[in-house]
Amino acid sequence: MDSVDENLLKYFNGDLTAYPNDPFEKYHRESTWHKNWKKAFPIEYREKVFCCQDTGELHRADVYTNCGTAIEFQNSPITLSEMQSREAFYPKMLWVLNGKKFKGFRVLKNLPDPYDPKLEAFEFCNTDHLSMFSKSEVLSGIVKPKVLNFYHPELKKIKLSSNYYHFCWKQPHAVWYAAKAPIFVDLGGLFLYRLKIRKQISGDYAYLEMINRKKFIEDFL
After folding, report:
1. Cα torsion through 207, 139, 154, 156, rounded to 10
2. Could you list the pLDDT tens digit for every one of the 221 residues in the chain?
3. Are 83 and 90 in contact (CB under 8 A)?
4. What are residue 210's DSSP bridge partners?
5. Cα–Cα distance list, 60 to 70, 193, 204 (Å)
6. Which residues make beta-bridge pairs with 95?
7. How many Cβ atoms from other residues are within 10 Å of residue 164's Cβ?
8. I want to staple 171 with a disulfide (CB 3.0 to 4.6 A). Which of 25, 96, 103, 198 is the partner?
């Protein structure tokens, strides 16, 4: 990908005569949440514009770091095709989503490390209540395997973590479960929550990893 010409640079500095039809009008209506996130990064990282050599399509990264990572701050719903277009264009990128706008999104209980070797024989239930069932029962074809909570003798000694969380999302935006780039959900406060997936025979299990907001930003400075 190549940086674009001087006209685009002038345009994003406020000179609308370079592109009188204003193809980037939507970027002038960004939310306060969106603007504040960009202000957390040096000005030279912000609003980087690139042009795809193959298609001529323009891409504007909210933040493009010195290590070549594009950071996209998403405050509103996005189509699958738009999400895939951005991910295909940037070799390295990640998403930060405004989770305050998600309906029915709640962080629930602490989890053990989902990849703790002690849990290898179990699978998480995809319900609001933190529970598991035996992988052997799934492999045996049992339609309704026995549900086990963390008071069960085989599970109660497994230590809960301080940074992994069970969550529910009553009205999920399905597009984000198709994303390949890392996703971080911003619910406000000192932490972000990275959306992660544990591969399971019975169906993938989504969970959250809590990340310090300040460290997240500093890692890209």
Report:
1. 20
2. 544 445 444 444 445 444 455 444 454 578 899 999 999 999 999 999 998 887 778 889 999 999 999 999 999 999 999 999 999 999 999 999 999 999 999 999 999 999 999 999 999 999 999 999 999 999 999 989 999 999 999 898 999 999 999 999 988 999 999 999 999 999 999 999 999 999 999 999 999 999 999 999 999 98
3. no
4. 193
5. 9, 25, 32
6. 72, 183
7. 20
8. 103
Tokens 């309704």 map to which residue? 144
**Of 70, 72, 95, 99, nearest in space to 169 by CA:** 99
**What tokens appear for 120 in the block?**
């290898």
